[in-house]
Design brief:
The chain has 1237 residues and is mainly alpha-helical. It has a domain at 808-917: Leucine-rich Repeat Variant, CATH 1.25.10. Helices cover 72% and strands 1% of the residues. It has 62 helices and two strands. The chain has a two-stranded antiparallel ribbon. A hairpin with a 4-residue loop joins strand 1 and strand 2. Helix 5 (79-95) runs parallel beside helix 7, helix 39 (790-807) crosses helix 41 (830-846) and helix 43 runs antiparallel to helix 44. The longest helix is centred in the N-terminal third of the chain and has 22 residues, at 385-406.
Length: 1237
């Protein structure tokens, strides 16, 4: 059927009538585009010939259609026919007339673009390449043909460069000659071709090509045009091959810098080309360019102000002009124009080069503030607008890099901190930007606000002293009729950020000036401006009444009604964007919560309107949060008109599928019940309790915590809701008893569950005995929901302890006696014994149990149990009972450690509990309870056990020493330091682990002691014993995470040592003979894994101390090809580097492809167990996340990475996994992505 249709079409195509031919060609195109279209050999030949004939048709429309026919045709015919088509087109291109040549060129580009890789591509390349080389090199070929040949060759190299390896040398030689041609257009195309070729060339050919170009550059007699071409070629090579160009930089960079200094006065294009090339070196070869970075920075700064036609004197005169003469001055400045002045291109290239240094060199941040920051601020006055925007962007890059570097460890007080240096620069920055805000150009104003916005994000509260000078600029941006929406949005975003991050008192003198334009912006037609203005209104409301003092510090009353009426108009309007509706609701919630006492007459109309929005599916989530804001107000807003309806709506929301809505509803109900419990009916309480039982589950612990918190709130108001406790006991308690057995229960959910049991026992009609029995019985295997997990015993014990204390001393004492009796009876099950011990420990920690005689002996008796879990519980119980009365029980533990050699491990655990609680509770109590004599006894005991053969004992000793050091730093730190030189490796490892336990997140008195001597511990990374090295790496990781300031100054010394631990050490790999087979054991694996995890932590806290390019090659590359356990942290590191140091990663992207490709294509053996299969799947997903991060780096990816993405990652089953990972990345925050690994 297809052949018949084609036969009819081919007859019509032969018609002399142009319209017939056009329609027939169009029909042929439609046929060819059908998926089920097939051609036999004869028809294939005829169609190919006809399409090639149609290319020569006198009608341009018909030849254009014929070109379109080629795209589907080359996919339908066999490879021999494709080669014939290509050869015919080459003939037309090289020898045809002008019109034929143009059409043939377009047709060839179409064919090349549509051929898939494989045999067809190989055949086409073999046929096409020699003809293109001939077209380029033949001296008789016209310029136009050469130009087309170069274009086509560039496309072929881009698509199939790797298939042309045999011709690479010929192509290189042919193209290098083209760099010497007179025509600039041909030279430009030759540069593109060579750069595309370079991406797939061998290192040897690349070196020869580079040397050839460098030799031409060294020849000073060459015309300036040729010099510029050679410099562009160098830049193009580097852009194409990245890190592979690195070895040539030592020769190239000084050469380019000397050319720049010696360039003639008018050769601005040469300077621009040089700066562009240097920018590429910085971005693509960050490691090899390091020695030259200071020179490049100096050059960029020098040419940032290169303006030979405009002197500084003229600019100073401008600065002295008064505000009244400003407009006239601007006009006269605009009159200055020199169309031939190209110096602005040099300044633009310098700004971009400077940006590249800033973005790729976090370790130079302090140097950049000293050298570059003043220069950038000075150049805000740049007269060429495009360059000015680039200068702004460079300064924004500097601010963002500052945020990256100081994240989590920024201390403004430290004079060497980037934030401190920036703080000193703020007055100059603001002064300079204020001038820019007075300019006429909207683009300039938008740029100025962008800088200010970034400044506030990086350095909050830095503009307190400058608000007076900034407010007129904001006013003008919002009021000026010439302002566009972009400018208004930038001005409003800046205003919102600055108000949110500064004290309210700063704005009080300017409220009148700011409120009018902001409220006017609320009425704007463009929704983005309106939404942003409403957000600013929210901040404005907080600023005008920061607290509820009487009398108020600021007279806010005149602003109440104007703000309210403007927001109310937006709240009532129906025909507006979703974003505006949500902002209006949020803002109205703030207005009522802060200014509600001055809007009593308006409540009757406003609250029902918010209730209406609560009932609307589109706006309900925002309205729920607005009611929470109102309920939490200390003004006690009268909500009686809508309270019952609001509670009813919120109760129904608790059964909705939308998780965010359920969470917000729980929070709002809690706020409403706290503030208005007496006004809410018992029936509403009943319906709330009914819904709550279904929300308690370990599948969502955050939701569970909110639910239990709400239950506690409901049981507090016994006066108005006496029956709430009974309803909760009946409906919620069964779910709580199932939850307490969950192995996932922890954190906030566990704390609220404890509070829930305490509130329940204190509420009416709840028996303590029944509640305790229900709680303890959950540990029995026959209880509902299956047997309890090991973790559950600890949760049950904590809840039981809180329950006993809440019930009063008598009940508590009775319970302890019952638990002791259970322990004494020999017929109790393991579960009962275990739970009894844990309960005693939890109660003993909170209350002195010394009134129960011989309790300690009963607990020590359990040390003889055959169950390891009961032994551990007994040591936990003994330690915690001792916490309740140190004077009585501590000496007993110390004596027993000395006497009972077999029980040392358990008794040391008890001692650890005592010390850990002392260090956590701290304060005067801790110091008073733990006497000096006790500390000395404990110390001598612990140091004796440092050299224990058992690793478990040494680890407990290390934790005890660390926690003890938090209480007595002046004694412990020198003693620990002294033992870093111990001949025993066990002792050295123990004291290093001990130091790890002293470095906690909150500031401690010990910090100053550690700061002076931490190097003694961390330098053990180079210890001869691998266990000591592992301990030192772990300690460095902890310090970098909790207190980076302790280690920052040591990193130049420590990083090379740390990187050395990432290398596979052959001497640590041994073969174990297991009889029928041999097993290879890698003792260095844990150390390598720990080293990479440490680098991962350092990237978060000490980025400015790390040169990523030195770490990526070779350390990260080797890690990506290492064992599973090492690959996982390496993928995580790669994701972080992609986000924070994209340039350094982009430079080595080709080298990253191979290890990642092997990982994602790794297949498990056919007989692999499920655990191995799951681990492999986790590893593939982890690698795909890293690949997704690479794909998101801004900048042009390399051809090899593109091919890897298109032919490996986005194909077959991997494509599905990759899309899932991508979706994950889009929906989760960056921090969550990191946690997934």
């Amino acid at each position: 059927m297809a052949s018949l249709a084609v036969g009819l079409i081919l007859e019509k195509i032969a018609s002399k009538d142009k319209d017939f031919r056009y329609m027939a060609t169009s029909d042929l195109l439609n046929e060819l585009q059908k998926d089920n279209f097939k051609l036999d050999t004869d028809t294939e030949r005829k169609v190919s010939q006809i399409v090639l004939q149609q290319l020569d048709d006198a009608s341009g429309d018909i030849s254009g259609l014929a070109v379109k026919c080629l795209a589907p045709l080359v996919k339908k015919v066999h490879e021999g026919r494709v080669v014939e088509i290509v050869e015919s087109l080459c003939q037309k291109l090289l020898t045809g007339k002008e019109q034929q040549r143009d059409i043939a060129s377009i047709a060839l580009k179409t064919v090349v673009a549509k051929i898939s890789t494989g045999n067809v591509a190989q055949c086409v390349v073999v046929s096409l390449t020699p003809k293109m080389i001939k077209g380029i090199t033949n001296p008789d070929t016209s310029t136009e043909v050469k130009s087309e040949c170069l274009d086509i060759l560039c496309d072929v190299l881009h698509c199939f460069g790797s298939l042309m390896t045999a011709d690479h040398e010929k192509l290189m030689n042919a193209l290098l000659v083209q760099l010497n041609l007179q025509r600039a257009g041909l030279r430009k195309r030759a540069i593109q071709c060579l750069a595309t070729l370079a991406a797939t060339m061998s290192d040897d050919l690349l070196a020869r090509a580079t040397v050839n170009v460098v030799q031409l550059l060294k020849n000073k007699d060459v015309k300036p045009d040729m010099t510029r071409t050679n410099i562009q070629m160098i830049g193009a090579f580097c852009r194409a091959v990245g890190y592979r160009f690195g070895p040539h930089l030592n020769e190239v960079v000084p050469l380019l810098i000397s050319y720049c200094h010696n360039a003639s006065e008018n050769d601005d294009e040469l300077r621009e080309n040089i700066l562009q090339a240097l920018e590429i070196f910085i971005l693509r070869c960050p490691r090899d360019v390091s020695p030259h970075t200071d020179l490049i920075l100096g050059l960029a700064l020098e040419y940032l102000s290169y303006d030979p036609n405009f002197t500084d004197d003229m600019d100073e005169d401008q600065d002295e002009v008064t505000d009244g003469e400003e407009d006239e001055d601007e006009e006269s400045a605009d009159e200055y124009s020199d169309d031939e002045d190209m110096s602005w291109k040099v300044r633009r290239a310098a700004a971009k080069c400077l940006s590249a240094v800033i973005s790729s060199r976090p370790e130079m941040i302090c140097t950049l503030y000293i050298k570059a920051s003043p220069k950038l601020v000075e150049r805000f006055k740049e007269r060429e607008e495009n360059v000015k925007i680039d200068v702004f962007n460079a300064f924004i890059d500097l601010l963002r890099q500052t945020a990256n570097v100081t994240k989590g460890s920024g201390c403004i007080a430290n004079p060497s901190s980037p934030l401190h240096i920036l703080q000193q620069e703020v007055p100059k920055v603001v002064k300079s930007l204020n001038k820019q805000l007075r300019e006429k150009s909207l683009k300039t104003k938008v740029g100025a606000f962008s800088v200010l916005k970034e400044l506030v994000i990086v350095l909050p509260n830095s503009l307190s002293e400058h608000m007076g000078s900034l407010v007129p600029g904001i006013e003008k941006a919002l009021n000026d009729k010439a302002s566009n929406s972009n400018l208004k949005i930038e001005a409003l975003v800046f205003t919102r950020l600055v108000m949110a991050s500064h004290s309210s008192a700063v704005f009080h003198p300017h409220i009148k000036a700011l409120s009018a334009p902001v409220l006017a912006a609320v009425g704007e037609r463009y929704y983005k401006v309106t939404a942003e203005a409403l957000r600013v209104c929210g901040e404005l409301v907080k600023a005008i009444r920061p607290n509820f003092d009487t009398p108020p510090t600021f007279d806010f009353v005149p602003f109440v009604h104007p703000i309210y009426s403007n927001i109310y108009k937006r709240l009532t309007a129906q025909d507006q964007d979703q974003e505006v509706k949500e902002c209006a609701i949020s803002c109205m919630g703030l207005v009522i919560s802060i200014l509600g006492d001055h809007l009593k007459n308006e409540m009757g109309t406003c609250l029902p309107l918010l209730l209406e929005r609560l009932r609307n599916e589109i706006t309900r989530l925002t309205a729920v949060k607005a009611f929470a804001t109102i309920a939490e107000s200390s003004l006690n807003i009268d909500l009686s008109s809508v309270l019952e309806q609001v509670v009813t709506e919120l109760t129904t929301f608790l059964r909705k599928a939308n998780r965010a809505l359920r969470q917000a509803s729980l929070v709002t109900l809690n706020s409403l019940l706290t503030a208005y419990s007496s006004k809410i009916s018992p029936a509403s309480y009943e319906s709330i309790v009914t819904e709550l039982s279904s929300l308690i589950s370990d599948a969502d612990l955050h939701m569970t915590a909110l639910t239990l918190e709400l239950c506690c709130t409901m049981m507090i108001d016994k006066k108005h809701h006496a029956n709430a406790g009974a309803a909760i006991r009946e409906r919620v308690l069964p779910q709580a008893l199932i939850l307490v057995k969950s192995s996932l229960l922890q954190g906030q959910a566990l704390q609220t569950l404890q509070a829930f049991f305490a509130a329940l026992v204190q509420s009416a009609n709840t028996s303590f005995d029944v509640l305790l029995d229900a709680l303890l019985s959950t540990a029995r295997s026959a209880s509902p929901g299956g047997p309890a997990s090991k973790q559950a015993f600890h949760s049950i014990a904590q809840c039981a302890a809180v329950l006993c204390l809440a019930a009063g001393d008598a009940m508590c004492s009775e319970t302890v006696s019952m638990l002791i009796t259970t322990l004494r009876s020999s017929n109790g099950t393991d579960a009962t014994q275990l739970l009894s011990l844990l309960c005693l420990g939890e109660i003993g920690r909170r209350k002195d149990l010394s009134s129960h005689s011989n309790i300690e002996l009963v607990v020590i008796g359990s040390f003889q149990s055959p169950s390891e879990e009961i032994k551990a519980a007994a040591s936990f119980a003994l330690g915690n009972i001792a916490v309740g009365n140190l004077a009585q029980y501590l000496s007993l533990i110390l004596t027993q450690i000395d006497r009972q050699a077999k029980l040392q491990y358990l008794l040391l655990h008890s001692l650890k509990e005592v010390i850990a609680r002392q260090s956590m509770d701290g304060g005067a109590k801790g110091k008073m309870d733990l006497q000096d004599a006790d500390v000395q006894k404990i110390l001598s005991l612990l140091f004796t056990h440092c050299e224990s053969e058992e690793e478990g004992v040494r680890n407990v000793v290390a934790e005890c020493l660390g926690k003890l050091a938090l209480i007595e730093p002046e004694k412990l730190v020198p003693a620990l330091k002294e033992r870093t030189a111990s001949p025993s490796a066990y002792t050295r490892a123990t004291v290093v682990i001990a130091i790890k336990f002293t470095i906690v997140e909150r500031p401690q008195p010990i910090d100053s002691y550690i700061k002076s001597c931490i190097s003694s511990f961390l330098l053990l990374i180079k210890d001869e014993d691998r266990h000591v090295r592992r301990a030192a790496v772990s300690a460095l990781s902890t310090a970098a995470h909790n207190k980076p300031a302790l280690v920052k100054d040591l990193l130049p010394t420590l990083l090379p040592l740390l990187y050395d631990q990432t290398v596979v050490k052959k001497e640590l790999i041994r073969t174990v003979d297991l009889g029928p087979f041999k097993h290879i054991v890698d003792d260095g694996l844990e150390l390598r894994k720990g080293a990479f995890e440490c680098v991962d932590t350092l990237l978060d806290s000490c980025l400015d101390q790390i040169d990523p390019s030195y770490f990526i090659t070779p350390h990260l590359l080797s890690g990506l090809a290492d064992h599973y356990d090492v690959k996982m942290p390496c993928h995580l590191i790669l994701s972080k580097l992609s986000a924070k140091c994209g340039g350094a990663v982009l430079a080595v992207m080709d080298a990253l492809v191979e290890p990642l490709e092997k990982t994602i294509q790794h297949k498990t053996k056919a007989d692999a167990v499920k655990q191995e299969v799951d681990r492999n799947e986790d590893m593939i997903r982890s690698a795909l996340r890293a690949i997704d991060s690479l794909n998101r780096i801004s900048g042009e990816p390399t051809p090899r990475f593109k091919a890897f993405m298109n032919h490996v990652v986005k194909v077959g089953p991997l494509a599905e996994k990759y899309n899932a990972v991508r979706h994950e990345s889009d929906t989760l925050g960056a921090g969550d992505i990191m946690d997934l690994n």
